[in-house]
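Sequence in, structure out. Go.
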Amino acid sequence: MTSKIDAEKAIAGVNGKMLKERPIAVDWALSKSKWEGVKDQVEAEIDAQDQVEGEGSDSEGRSENEELDDSSDEGLGVHADGDVSMHSGSEEDEEEDKGGDEDDRGSPSKPELPPPEAGTTLFIRNVPWEATEDDLRQLFKAFGSLRYVRIVMDHESGRSKGTAFACYWKKEDADKVAAISQTLSKDVNMDTVARNPFSAPSLLTPDPSSSLARNLVIHGRTLDVVLAVTRETAGKLRDVGVKMREKADKRNLYLMREGVIFPNSPAASTIPPAELEKRMNSFNARRKLIQTNPSLYVSKTRLSIRQLPTFVSERSLKRLARHAIKTFDEETEKGERDGLEEDEMDDEGGKKVVDPLSGGEVALSAKEPKGEEKKKIGRKGKWSSGGVKQAKIVRLSERVDPLTGKGKSKGYGFLETEKHADALKILRWANNNPETGSLFRSWWMDEMKEALSVLEKKTGKKSEEEIARMKRLKEVIATSNEDGVEKAGSKRTLVVEFSIENVVIIKKREGRDKTSTSLRRRRE
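Output:
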């Protein structure tokens, strides 16, 4: 029995009942070590009973005692040395010897089943909803003796999930079933080498009418059978399956959730409720936008940055990107934050490798060069440690900032990096980071001092506009309370997300870039 409670019910319900005019006797079985302890006491009680019956029955009593010595173990249900119980009898005897007192207290005890790595357990997919465990047992018992068959049920609906487990006594029987299923999968060109049960399954199934498939057909459907794995390995396979689907997603929709602060996340407690609602509304609007337009996709190297202080320039934005990459790496080395995953460190270069768990091909690309492997990149012939291609602030053309002479900032901009890994580092460090406000203010002051120094060193007569600008710069620098900086910027944190791009516009932009590049080369 699987527990002591079930055994007690069986004894109460069956013991003493008549079967073909004979009473059934059901009692607790004892381990051999326990039986040896009470054997002398049982024999003494039998001897006393024989003496009461009288001398005339001595010979008969002796014969009964002799017979008891030979068969008492079997009659009381004691497991002999050569017996094999339903769930590994030798192991149960040891458990009863060690935990007998625990059984006496009435605590249920379940037999230990073989672990998945033993290779006797099978994982079954494509199980019809109307199929029962008896149906599966009748099908799989043709390959060997079964320990159990279990259908995976949905706790909420109470219906089958379409999967099941079957456990054999012998590993050879389980391998036989898995080999047949693998042969059937080859016929329909399904991946058969170390298949990942958590990756997207093939829509093709073997023909149920084929001679080989008939052994695995139930209710007109061919079952897909693989060897079961441990819970830890199942988690790894699930992660690999998710990553493979992400690699195959050309629109990179999985990056939509990157950097989003959800209400139940730890970061939600660090921002006001109004700010949290604003971020969630932005996420829902972006998701709806990309779902309704198939031409849109999420860029892997271009970031959208909102809630920028209006005094932030393109130079400061690029400086923030390089600072974020450097600080992210330093915090990772110190163990203060989690680093990037191995697949996140790889850029897209078209290279494909075989995943060791799933057996499928995953597109990877070259990593950042190290040491002597670094090569000159770009027109300037230098390797950029920050990896920033472009920093852009969206400005108003009709309003000019008196300090910089540029258009007034709209409070948002874009950053484009050379590698996806750099974009991830910038996003994960700068998004909702309160340190960015003080960094922007210090960099802004540096730019103001530098602009004033350039105007002062300028030779010749200065225009009225330049004189007014110098006066304004001196006032801002002298008053260090940052009258020219919006105070609200110190309270609001950045919203950093992967930018949504339009493939049609990108192609037009690439065409214009190629044309301008070719014209420039002709002139040179």
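Check: The first strand starts at residue 18 and ends at 19. Confidence is low (pLDDT under 50) at residues 52-105, 191-203, 348-385, 481-489.
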